Amino acid sequence: MINRRQKVFLYTGFSLILIVGILLADVFVSVENLRTDFSQQSLGPSFSHWFGTDWLGRDMLLRTVKGLALSVKVGVVASLASTLIALLLGVSAAIFGKRTDAFISWLTDLFLGIPHLILLILISFALEGGVRGVIIGVALTHWPSLTRIIRAEVLQLKSMPYVQASIRFGKSPFYVARKHMLPHLMPQLMVGSILLFPHAVLHEASITFLGFGLDPSRPAIGIILSESMRYLTGGYWWLAVFPGLALLVVIRLVDVVGDNLHMISDPQQGQL
Amino acid sequence: MNSLKYLAKKGLRMLTLLIAVSILSFVLVSLSPIDPVQSYIGADMIRVSEEQRQQIAENWGLDQPPVTRFLKWGSNLIQGDFGTSSIYRAPVLQVIGERFIASAFLMGAAWVLSGVLGFILGILAGMNQGTLLDRGIKLYCLIMASTPTFWLGLLILMVFSVGLGWFPIGLGVPAGVLQGDVTLWDRIYHLILPALTLSVIGVANIALHTRQKLLDVLSSDYVIFARARGEEGFALVWRHGIRNIALPAISLQFASFSELFGGAVLAEQVFSYPGLGQATVQAGLRGDVPLLLGLVIISTAFVFAGNFIADIIYSIIDPRIKEGRRNHD
């Protein structure tokens, strides 16, 4: 048996290879590879086309990889942006007095109150749809839950003797936040941002599935799946099964990495 | 008394949040470069002259500055007038009302089913910690948490509608039947698959939560003492476990209205079920501003209602909240 640390190492390595592989493949797969080929229309999965081909003879594996690459990019941007927002808001809430705290927790409630998907539709509408609207929407809406966690953690840190001592010595809130709190928050920030990734990717897929951010030149997983709906009655099951399964695998892997890192960095709370 | 004060405070907060939501969504919609007059006219654009366009804009008050428009819209809103939907050509509240009933059936069925099933699964897993059953349930829940709702819907549609042919492919009621002739059975029949999709996904959260809570309870001193007295098996879990974890689970279920609504939007899209979700997607894609704003506000109010009920339950089960100690944690 391997222990947890080794397991995390394996999972992390495997996920990284997979994600880098997807991104690299995206660079090498050009429009040329996705051109229509009517001699290869609607073929089931085979050795030359692992995921089958669609009604235009395009290889589904290549389209899926293209879609996954977009998902991964959106996911990474969204986790980084949301973690940064959560860090800023969470730390300010806990450091700058009661009013700031009340306002930030009110803001958090505001964003948690609107059903997430509806908020994404609203933002996408405000930005006139398109991939840009999807990316900005997903990136700017995933911070509330992490903000709450960071705020609670910072509040707890604030009552620690070493932080109290530093404050009494007249250090500025900014200094305390940077020197005493940030290093302590690092593991949680890392785990938090990794665990945001699956949410962001799921939302990206959902919103493109609903038809927002429609851009035929850039197949997103959501778009591929919503197109497949028209061909389901014809029995072309592979059009829907494989792209969705691939997305599920990527999401689950990142989730496993995040959960395991959580358990290593915080064995008491990270238990599942 | 304190508990009432706590709830009043929560209620007031929700009111301010709801006002903020309407301001935020109005600002976002105003930012949009999509021309509402254009989307109203739609394909008829050739037959509409420039003058008629201006008249429509004037009718809607689009020539006025945004603040004036917002105040007018807001005051109408308070009087219960949400404006007119441009794609359904009917008052927004009427459109939402009709669709809300359809969605409420779907969400209600999924909510109850996922709650009950999730609770049972969580208890089963917690009682058999570490066994194959527990690990199976846990794995299932974790996988479901990573599964796109609409993809699962597609799989279910493929298996039960296309493959086995047991169910219709979409539509809330049979095609070509008058509204009055639709029977209750028809409605249920068309509801089963979307509700099943939402339930299969929805059990994950509640089951994992229940399992964890049960494990906490089972390792507590009073359960160890109860075991020492000779209590065991399901009787023990019933007497000491379920009583302790039922209310938090119900409360969690009420607090999950936001995800439920999002899931319903996706399931309605897959099964072309004519509910609120489909209306939202249409409103967003075709630029029906009054309907979109109305849906944002109604769905947020729906989520807040769920959160409020969850708060009430919390204040019943946790005496610390009654005493107002929660803020000092």
Most strands sheet of chain B: 2 strands, antiparallel
CATH-derived architecture of chain B = Orthogonal Bundle
**Structure annotation, total helices of chain A:** 10
User: How far do the termini of chain B sit from each other?
Assistant: 21 Å
Task: Give the topology string of chain B: H per helix, E per strand.
Answer: HHHHEEHHHHHHHHHH
- Overall average residue pLDDT of chain A: 84
- Which segments of chain A are poorly predicted (pLDDT under 50) over 5 or more consecutive residues? none
| The first-level CATH class name of chain B | Mainly Alpha
CATH level-four homologous superfamily name of chain B: MetI-like
- By helix and strand content of chain A, what is the structural category? mainly alpha
Rg value of chain B = 24 Å
- Distance N to C terminus of chain A: 20 Å
Question: β content of chain A, as a range?
Answer: under 5%
Largest interface: A-B, 44 and 54 residues
Walk me through the topology.
The complex is a heterodimer of chains A (272) and B (329).
Chain A: H1 4-28, H2 60-95, H3 97-113, H4 116-126, H5 130-139, H6 144-158, H7 161-168, H8 173-209, H9 221-228, H10 238-265
Helix pairs in contact in A: 1-2, 1-10, 2-3, 2-5, 2-6, 2-8, 2-10, 3-6, 4-5, 5-8, 6-8, 7-8, 8-9, 8-10, 9-10
Chain B: H1 2-31, H2 36-41, H3 50-59, H4 66-78, E1 84-85, E2 90-91, H5 92-127, H6 132-145, H7 149-163, H8 184-218, H9 221-228, H10 233-254, H11 257-270, H12 276-286, H13 289-317, H14 319-322
Antiparallel strand pairs in B: 1-2
Helix pairs in contact in B: 1-13, 5-6, 5-8, 5-10, 5-13, 6-8, 7-8, 7-11, 8-10, 8-11, 10-13, 11-12, 12-13
Provide a descriptive summary of the structure in words.
The complex is a heterodimer of chains A (272) and B (329). Chain A has 272 residues and is mainly alpha-helical. Chain A has a single domain, classed as MetI-like (MetI-like fold). Chain A is 72% helix and 0% strand. Chain A has helices spanning 4-28, 60-95, 97-113, 116-126, 130-139, 144-158, 161-168, 173-209, 221-228, 238-265. Chain A starts with a helix and ends in a 7-residue tail after the last helix. With 329 residues, chain B is an all-alpha fold. Chain B has a single domain (91-328), classed as Orthogonal Bundle (MetI-like fold). In chain B, 75% of the residues lie in helices and 1% in strands. Chain B has 14 helices and two strands. In chain B, a hairpin with a 4-residue loop joins β1 and β2 (90-91). In chain B, α12 crosses α13 (289-317). The longest helix of chain B is centred in the N-terminal third of the chain and has 36 residues, at 92-127. The radius of gyration of chain B is 24 Å and the shape is globular. The model of chain B has no long low-confidence stretch (mean pLDDT 81). Chains A and B meet through α3, α4, α8, α9 and α10 of A and α1, α6, α7, α11 and α12 of B.
